[in-house]
Amino acid sequence: MNRFQILVLNQISAHGLARLPKAYYVIGKDIAQPDAILVRSHDMHGSAVAPSVKAIGRAGAGTNNIPVGEMSKRGVPVFNAPGANANAVRELVLAALLMGARNLVPALRFVGALPADAPDFEARVEDGKKQFAGVELPHRTLGIIGLGAIGGLVAETALKLGMKVLGFDPEITVDAAWRLPSNVRKAESVEEVLRQSDFVTLHVPLLPVTRHMIDARRLAALRRGATLLNFARDAIVEETAVVAALRSGQLKAYLCDFPSPQLLAEPGVVALPHLGASTAEAEENCAIMVVDQVRDYLENGNVRNAVNFPNVEMARESVFRVAIANANVPNMLGQISTTMARAGLNIHNMVNKSRSEMAYTLVDVDSAVEQKVIDEIAAINGVLSVRSIPVEA
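The chain above was modelled as a monomer; its predicted structure follows.
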C-alpha cells in the first residue's frame, strides 16, 4: 500500500490519529502535497488546497469553515462526524435550559457583586433573591427546531424531565425519525413551534435557507416571555432582532454558544465561549469517526458521511478498484464502462449513486488498470476525479 500523506490543520485527538497505521500514513502540520486534510475549526476559506488532496475530514459536525463548493467541483469529498458530539451538546443544552428556567446566571452575577464585608450581607441576599424566582420544567413546552442526532437527544431528555416537546424538521431522515420518541408532537412550521413553546432550542445546520431563520418577523410570533436557546450556529439567529425582542420583553432570555460584541451588553443574554463540543469525549469521538471515514475512502473508495457526496460502500471483490466522481448527468456510466471495455477490462462489480448534482461510482475489475485508462476516464466531460485503488500498490 502507498504511504498516504495527511495534513493536520488543528490539534486532532491522538486516539483518532492512532487509527492511521504508521506503516502506511505520514501525519504532519507541514505537508506540502497531502492526500487528505484533517481539520477542526481552522478556516480553510481563502487558503489554497493542494491539487493532491483527495479528501477532507472535519472532526465535528459543521463544515462552514471548509470550501465545500470548491471541493465538490474538484470531486473531493468533505467528511464530517454527525452525531459524534451529540451527547456533549445535549448536556450543554440541558444546562442552558436549567440556567434559563431558574435565572441562574443573573443570580450568580448578583451574588458576585455583593460586598463581602457588608454588615447586612445576609439581608441583601434574602432581599435580592426575590428577583430571580424561576419556573420548574415539568409541564412546560420545549420547542425543538431540527430533530437530527442532537435534537433527538434533547427531546428525549426533556421528556424525561416531564416537559412537553413540540418538534419541527421538514428534512428529518428516516433514521432520525425512528430514533425520535413517539410522544414528541409534530409541528407544521417554525411559527407553530414559536407560538406554542415556553422554551425554544435550535438544532439545524447553517445553510442559505436557515441563515437568520429566527428574525424579527418570527420573533414576533414567539410566545411572549419565552426563552430562546441556540447551540447550533450563530448566524441562524439575527442578533439585532434578538436584542430588540429582549428589550421589548417579547423574549425573556437568549442563551447561546456564540458571544459577540452586540450581545455582551445585554442583561438577558447568556453567551458561552463555543463549549458545545468541548469535552474530551466529544473530541475523541469526532476524531475517531472522521479518521475512520477518511481512511476507508483513501484505501477502498468507500464514502460515509460526506456532506457533498452520496453514501457509497461496496465490499471488495477484486484487488483492482476504480473510484470516479462525476457530475450527475445522463450517460456517464455508459461512457465509463465503454472506456473500460475498450481497454479490455472486465467489470466484476459496480455501484453508482447520486446526490443532487454529484454522482459517485465504484468499479471492481478483474485486472490492473493502466494509467492511460485512468486518463481516458478523467477526460470524459463531467468527470471530476478518478483514481485507481489497488489493494497493494
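The two ends are 5 Å apart (CA to CA).
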